[in-house]
Design brief:
This protein is α+β, with helices and mostly antiparallel strands and about 325 residues long. The protein is built from four helices and twelve strands.
């Protein structure tokens, strides 16, 4: 009976020991994915910012500029692209909506971001765009890969339509969460005017006729939780200028927008809570279950060997008793 039990324990030990690396290196890369239907929004603010008054074409100080960013998963578009891409794809339809202190629109820029659901690598497909202009992204945007590494990444800048390195700057603690801090600097770059302008009658084409151009620079900062690859906080030191042309009335340049953009406090709290919850799920697949199964396999193996040893010990025949020789009679 003990031998049969030891064999069962041995089989279970082998099963759990084999399951440990399979769960970590085979199952996790396939199970960890961004859902195609995901929706998220975020509000950022720039206090005491500088904003261009298009009525007077003069820059003025304002108490606050708000940026509302939304990302909506387009399931229909992702399923269509998956048929030709041959892998799990996520399509995010995004919108960056900027409004001044009076609630009026400053700019709104839509974009479509197509990426691999597992690795977050961009998938160049028809429909990928920024503000209606077709683009072919290289590098990540919005989210880092699962199990983010301590290294530089390529990050796509939607304003400039370019990809540039975003540098790993060290590990920090952000509100009880260990995060990797990344920073990217985009130097002054000529960029297109938004298709939707804040003043009726002004279009990118009409501005182009004046010879005025739009320039942009930013320092982008992200604090990323490495297991999930999700930013828990972000900032930008954002600057825009209009330069040259008759629109400025002979001036060389004028500030269109300048401000230190930060996540609003209530969105920080919500994001941190959400990331902590998702972090537990990733840990379950990458650490808790694999190490737990390995420890369970070792324990079962030990019990199996113990029962086998006891079985062998009890099954050995008892030594025969020595008998005295009988006397020989004549």
């Amino acid at each position: 009976m003990r031998r049969k039990a030891s064999l069962i324990l041995l089989a279970l030990a082998v099963f759990f020991a084999a399951l440990s690396p399979l769960l970590r290196w085979y199952a996790f890369p396939r199970l960890a994915k961004i859902p195609a239907h995901q929706y998220q929004d975020m509000v950022l603010e720039a206090k005491d910012a500088t904003l261009l008054d298009y009525g007077t074409m003069r820059a003025r100080k304002v108490p606050e500029v708000s940026i509302v960013q939304t990302l909506r998963g387009n399931v229909e578009a992702s399923e269509k692209i998956e048929k030709t891409a041959g892998r799990d794809v996520v399509v995010w339809d995004g919108l960056s909506y900027v409004q001044g202190p009076d609630g009026k629109m400053v700019s709104k820029i839509p974009e479509r971001y197509v990426f691999d659901a597992h690795t977050q690598e961009p998938v160049n497909a028809t429909g990928e765009m920024v503000d209606g202009d077709p683009v072919k992204r290289q590098g990540i945007e919005f989210k880092w890969p699962f199990l983010t590494e301590k290294r530089d990444y390529e990050y796509f800048d939607a304003q400039a339509r370019i990809t540039a390195p975003i540098h790993y700057q060290g590990t920090q603690n952000f509100r009880g969460v260990e995060v990797y801090y990344f920073e990217q600097t985009i130097p002054w770059t000529k960029v297109p005017f938004p298709k939707t302008m804040p003043v009726a009658g002004i279009t990118p084409e009409s501005v182009a006729k004046t010879g005025t151009t739009r320039w942009y620079s930013t320092v982008r900062k992200f604090w990323v939780e490495p297991l999930t690859g999700a930013p828990v906080y972000g900032e930008e030191i954002h600057k825009e200028e209009l330069r040259g042309g008759t629109l400025l009335g002979g001036r060389e340049k004028v500030t269109a927008f300048a401000g230190h953009v930060k996540m609003r406090e209530d969105y920080i709290e919500h994001t941190v809570d959400l990331v902590k919850s998702n972090r537990t799920l990733v840990l379950l697949l990458t650490s808790y279950l694999p190490w737990g199964f390995l420890a369970l396999g070792i324990l079962l193996l030990s019990l199996s060997l113990y029962l086998e040893a006891r079985s062998r010990h009890r099954g050995d025949p008892a030594p025969a008793e020595a008998t005295k020789p009988e006397p020989v009679t004549a």
